[in-house]
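pipeline/complex-builder :: batch 7 item 3
reading input block
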Amino acid sequence: DSGVTQTPKHLITATGQRVTLRCSPRSGDLSVYWYQQSLDQGLQFLIQYYNGEERAKGNILERFSAQQFPDLHSELNLSSLELGDSALYFCASSASDGPVEAFFGQGTRLTVV
Amino acid sequence: AQSVTQPDIHITVSEGASLELRCNYSYGATPYLFWYVQSPGQGLQLLLKYFSGDTLVQGIKGFEAEFKRSQSSFNLRKPSVHWSDAAEYFCAVGFSGGYNKLIFGAGTRLAVHP
């Protein structure tokens, strides 16, 4: 158990809908990262938050957004969902923004039908 | 642009045999290097990491990796594979200013024959 909690574990929704994925980082970790794992794109970095502020952006679509709350949990919002958004979404956390280990949650599997 | 290449998509070894998974990266400076393992339906678990210092790095579960700057490689090795090692293995690169904004390779799926 990495200490990173993601909910829900599975999500099935229809095209055009909006969903919210939630991540609780390890106790004390200030940095949260979101990754998408799909069959065609592999594992891709989406976005990073550090202590409530956006720190880095990767290949995140405009239909996707994220935030980190004062209690340090994070949410990834996916809207106007398309079939191609079906993927495993991982959250990871680390103690700082420096070269320290990141711990991954078990992911949320999103299926868009 | 930074990139990570894992040349082998699938590898099959016999239990007890040695293992080497290859990883090459493209980056102008010394990167931060990681190997993660993903078992079916599970998240990613860090096996080992290289930030600096000794280029031979020991990790969990009996794995080790060697950073070779001249070859831009960070290959993962294990002297004797166990059936429980069957999983997918990912090499990843982080870099100064984006330590955990990781760039992952495509992964190598390891199958272990009894």
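note: The first strand of chain A starts at residue 5 and ends at 7.
queue -> next item
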